[in-house]
Amino acid sequence: MSTLPPKPGLRHSVPDWNSNNQQLSAIAQHERHISNVIRQEARALRNETSCKTTWDENDTCHRLSDRVWDVARWKETLETCAQKVDEEMEALTLSKEQTEQALAATVIPMEVSTECLTLRDGRRGYELVSDPVEEQLKKETELIERVQQYLQQHIDKSFDQLCVLQEIRHELTSDLQNKMDALDIDMSCLSLTIKSPQISLKTNPTRIPPGSTTPQEWVQFSQYNVARAHEAIQVSEEMREDMSLTRAQAQNDFEIQWRATDFALRKRNHNEEQARDELEWQIRKTEDEMAETEHDIHELDADLYAKTASLKLAHTRLENRTHRCGMDLCRDEVQYGLVTEVHQVESTIAALKQKLSETQLSLQKMKLHHAHMLQDLSRKQEALSLEQRSMKTRSRLASTSGTDKTPVLLVPLTNSSGRSNLLLLAQ
Known about the structure:
The protein is mostly helical. The chain has helices at about 15-100, 110-120, 130-190, 215-245, 255-320, 335-395, 400, and strands at about 410-415, 420-425. The chain has a two-stranded antiparallel sheet. The radius of gyration is 52 Å and the shape is flat. It comes from Channa argus. It is found in: Cytoplasm, Cytoskeleton, Cilium axoneme.
């Protein structure tokens, strides 16, 4: 019976086998120890981070609560300040309207003078002149303006102050709206918990938004708005006091000035009629001369066309004679005569063209000046029409100058909110 051959491969000894078993046990024991340490550290970290997170959440809630209180306090301050601004705007608007009513002393003569000045401002070109009529009309308006100067200044200042108050009111409203929006956002954040369905992870939540401000800048901005509002209210109160002290009415007699203005207006109307008649005569004469010039231009064109035909004939004869052969290609008297004829005709054509150009330029200048005269005539007729309308407008003074009754005046009253009424005021 034969024996089996030994299996190939490395065989370990019994000490190696024991050593390997001991190594496996040691490694397992070491890994269990490390795992136990990590588990203990993880439990301690969980407890520590849980407390820290809870504390941070509570601290954030307290900070949000304090912030809500600060914003709410500033919101109330801004609301109170805005209400005071509204009250002052209403009081200043009422005082401004009362001052405008004091200007009701501007009666029909002022309306007529202003309307005449406005009508005469519609003149164009050289008709827009500073003549005695304009001087008398300005004197007429200055008689009333001197009396109303201080009242008008107060009205202008009150209007500017109303604009300032309106701007401040807008700034307060904008700041108040921002405070209300911030208050809604912070209260919404304060109401959120870890169980709220609205919470989620956001991209880069710790970024600093553009335009962010510091708490000091935030407080200073609202303080500036409130301080500016209080200063504007104080200025407005002082302005109302000044207006109440300077309101007055006055009456003036314009009979002499009215007559002087009417005389200057009638004289100016007569001068403009004379200038219009003279210009119409010049236009007619210019049109006659333009017709004669156009006729001469047609004659020059016809003569130029005839001379061009003669030049063509001479050129053709000269060209045909160049085809003579041999000794017959002679520079004879005919050759010299044709050359002289060509030069003469060319000189004649140049002279005719020069004269035609001068005639056309003269006609163009006359047409241009004719257009200018027509335009000036239109402006003179328009100016004359405006003068006649001014005289018709001033005829309203004749119906009131002989009565003692003060005319009724329509005074437009407009407040800062845009309300406009036409109040019938009788002095």
